[in-house]
């Protein structure tokens, strides 16, 4: 699947209640619904099976199948390291649409969501999250030299700029909160289409994550990325964080995962794992799931 194509991206504000799509892996044995211990015993069963099934959404650089048919991306590569430390040697991808990740997790289609999913209060009502492994600011694609001086959503509104963003992106709501009319937003499939729209002059600005924006403009002779910035949400500057999602009954697995994640953060190994996918030290974070869930 192309990055961000057709299905809502991991950064959509939707809580992931779309009906289950066709899953990319079949024939997998399902884990029994009932947990036999308080906090769940899934980790013990994964160790016994030797494999954990990862729900991914086919979005570069967060979780995808590469041109050689191999599972990769920041979340799967991190999952490989953490689950190996937890005694689970193999990971198995289960590709699906982004909107099907939470329903698929809760209906036992896979064991963990490994798709760089943003943590927000709506999703926290349906799943439990690890602490974020990265944080993310927004940025714009603009024409070279940024002729309209667009550096925030307020600038877009004040200068009546033609604005675009991706299908299901959180940036839709960030722009609306700043005062932009939702009906005036040009919705395109992904950041590549956004770059094309800016280069062709169909829009003045495309909004996306700082990471995807800076990567897509690298070879452009006509466009550039703005400096990353915090969108205003509820009147306050906001930072998003991406994490792994677990079924609410499996707190023991989530807690064990968090413990290994903290060790990787402390040692600096987390950054070394994520760096090949375009992440910088500015995207490393001490944010917690509790903070992002609103608790």
Automatic annotation (TrEMBL):
Keywords assigned: Signal
Keyword Membrane on entry: no
Superkingdom of this protein's organism: Bacteria
Listed SUPFAM superfamilies: Periplasmic binding protein-like II (SSF53850)
Ranges of residues in domain Solute-binding protein family 3/N-terminal: 51-281
Record bears the keyword Transmembrane helix: no
InterPro entries: Ectoine_EhuB (IPR014337), Solute-binding_3/MltF_N (IPR001638), TAT_signal (IPR006311)
Family matches, as PANTHER family: ARGININE-BINDING EXTRACELLULAR PROTEIN ARTP, MEMBRANE-BOUND LYTIC MUREIN TRANSGLYCOSYLASE F
NCBIfam families cross-referenced by the UniProt entry: ectoine_ehuB
Name of protein: Ectoine/hydroxyectoine ABC transporter substrate-binding protein EhuB
């Amino acid at each position: 699947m192309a990055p961000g194509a057709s299905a809502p991206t991991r950064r959509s504000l939707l809580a992931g209640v779309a009906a289950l799509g066709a899953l990319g892996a079949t024939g997998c044995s399902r884990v029994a619904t009932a947990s036999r211990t308080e906090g769940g015993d899934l980790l013990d069963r994964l160790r016994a099976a030797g494999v954990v099934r990862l729900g991914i959404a086919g979005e570069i650089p967060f979780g995808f199948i590469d041109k050689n048919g191999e599972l990769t991306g920041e979340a799967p590569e991190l999952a490989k390291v953490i689950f190996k430390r937890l005694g689970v040697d193999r990971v198995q991808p289960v590709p699906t649409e982004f909107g099907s990740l939470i329903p698929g997790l809760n209906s036992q289609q896979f064991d963990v969501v490994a798709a760089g999913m943003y943590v927000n209060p709506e999703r926290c009502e349906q799943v439990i999250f690890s602490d974020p492994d990265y944080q993310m600011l927004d940025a714009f694609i603009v024409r070279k030299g940024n002729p309209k001086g667009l550096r925030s959503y307020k600038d877009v509104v004040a200068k009546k700029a033609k604005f675009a963003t991706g299908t299901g992106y959180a940036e839709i709501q960030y722009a609306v909160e700043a005062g932009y009319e939702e009906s005036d937003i040009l919705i395109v499939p992904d950041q590549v289409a956004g770059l094309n729209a800016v280069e062709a002059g169909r829009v003045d600005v495309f909004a996306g994550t700082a990471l995807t924006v800076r990567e897509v403009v690298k070879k452009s002779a006509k466009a550039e990325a703005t400096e990353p910035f915090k969108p205003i949400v509820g009147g306050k500057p906001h930072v998003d964080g991406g994490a792994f999602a677990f079924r609410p009954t499996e707190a023991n697995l989530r807690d064990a995962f968090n413990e290994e994640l903290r060790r990787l953060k402390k040692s600096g190994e987390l950054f070394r794992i994520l760096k090949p996918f375009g992440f910088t030290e500015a995207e490393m974070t001490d944010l917690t799931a509790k903070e992002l869930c609103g608790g």
